[in-house]
Design a protein that fits this description.
Structural class: alpha/beta
Number of helices: 7
Number of strands: 7
Shape: globular
Length: 214
């Protein structure tokens, strides 16, 4: 079994804020997997719902501890189900990448994200998959708190919805195959060096474009 945890803050006042893209993803995945509202239960300071991806059992999780204490919910859940950190997938916001851009990683530091910092403190191991959804940097004059607790613009919201749709099969791939396959298949490809070599070798005709998911 794997735990798929989306990070966010509980309460309707935070529902559409940038910090809650993890909750948004888990809600969208639950709908795609046919999880009904009645299947959600409270367990270890989290809302949890069982589901299946292919033949694999998964537990969808939305910690109700507020972002900075996310590990207080996730740590006990891993222990209760006797799961290793490698069985955890965490979906969260990331200010260091543009709005709607995605990155999948298999381990690493908190990178300044307090929710991940809390999980690392409670789990004691960095070897769990992170699915990062970009929310961009604060506007000039805005604090980080102002930024993450504000809703998206209409354009930004559409980018987030597109990113979530793109990530649903990516997370399913982590569950049914593994995180390395998902990283290779779904992470945006770095093509700048390759493109530069191609341009040096031959001129690019007018109107030619390179399609790349970001």
């Amino acid at each position: 079994m794997k735990i798929i945890a989306g990070l966010g803050n509980p309460g309707t006042e935070y529902a559409r804020t940038k910090h809650n893209v993890g909750f948004m993803f888990v809600d969208a995945l639950a709908e795609a997997l046919g999880v009904s509202a009645s299947e959600w239960q409270v367990k270890f300071d989290a809302l949890v719902a069982p589901a299946r991806i292919g033949t694999q059992k998964v537990l969808l999780v939305k910690p109700q501890t507020y972002m900075n204490e996310s590990g207080r919910a996730i740590g006990p859940l891993l222990s209760w189900y006797k799961l290793e950190p490698e069985n955890l997938i965490v979906v969260h916001d990331d200010m260091d990448i543009p709005v709607g851009t995605i990155r999948i990683r298999k381990k690493g530091s908190a990178g300044g994200h307090n929710g991940i910092k809390s999980i690392l403190a409670h789990v004691g191991d960095e070897h769990f998959a992170r699915v990062r959804i970009g929310i961009g940097r604060p506007l000039p004059g805005w604090t980080v708190v102002n930024h993450v607790l504000a809703p998206f613009s209409d354009e930004g919201q559409q980018k987030i919805e597109d990113a979530i749709k793109y990530l649903e099969p990516a997370v399913e791939c982590i569950v049914t195959e593994d995180v390395d396959v998902a990283m290779n298949r779904y992470n945006p490809k770095k093509q700048k060096k390759k493109k530069a070599k191609q341009e040096a070798a031959e001129p690019v005709s007018a109107g030619q474009e390179e399609n790349q998911h970001e």
